Amino acid sequence: MTPNLADLVAAVHARTTPASGGHLIWNGSRAQDGGTPVFKNGNKSIAARRVMFQHTHGRAPEGTVRVTCDQQLCVAHVDDTAGRQRIHQQVRALNGLGPRPDTCTNGHNQTTEGRIDGNGHAYCEACVRGSRARRREAAARQQPEAA
Description:
The chain is α+β, with helices and mostly antiparallel strands. About 35% of the residues lie in helices and about 20% in strands.
């Protein structure tokens, strides 16, 4: 049985402390990454920021939900990937950088792979993934083999 949103929000509130500035500071468990506020609902691990995003915005989040204030354990001030990209597009426009290109220099479609960083500069997520994979492969080749 899927829990309703009101029950999940109540579970989040039970694990937070209100602070000035509208912050809700997480006091509960965190995921193995050490930072993501999570709680258990039965056997399922629930991300508190995703619950609060849906409660605040009235829709399920798209992509990663991150804190948008300077309180890393806050679960009240959160935004999803789509929201951050909209803000970054506005920054891009304010800086006079024009629209994001349709394709990157490697030909990847920027409708699906294009991202804009916090300074408004466009980059290609497919190229970033490829670069990370190449670095991991190079590092693995340089590791001495175990005897």
